[in-house]
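G., the chain you wanted modeled:
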Amino acid sequence: MAKAKHPALTEAEIQQRIASDPDAPEATDEQLAQARPFAEAFPELAASIRRGRGPGVKAKKEVVTLRLDPDVIAHFKGEGSGWQTRINDALRMLTKVGDSGGWVHRDADGRFHRMKRPSPSKKRA
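Predicted structure as tokens:
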């Protein structure tokens, strides 16, 4: 459906329409001098609508910039939405496994699993 075209207005016409709008009168200098931030004027209301995670909710993740190889990004993005979460899960698994000396294996469903590191083979003299 095509939008209705409105004639171009001059700045003077725009200002005249603003001044004639009874629902939105222009604030006076006195009103502007008395203006306060919303949270200061209505602290209880501001607190009630402030976004929060609530009690017992995990801390937000930290935003970082990370340089990855294009093929790594393509691999994770190729699996669909949630690719950043899957990268986070893979890194989390690696950090946990690194502490225990294990390996990480990814199954056919894309899930990561810890594996015991095989014992090193003895070299023959």
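Helices lie at 11-19, 29-34, 38-41, 43-49, 70-78, 83-100.

Shout if anything looks off.
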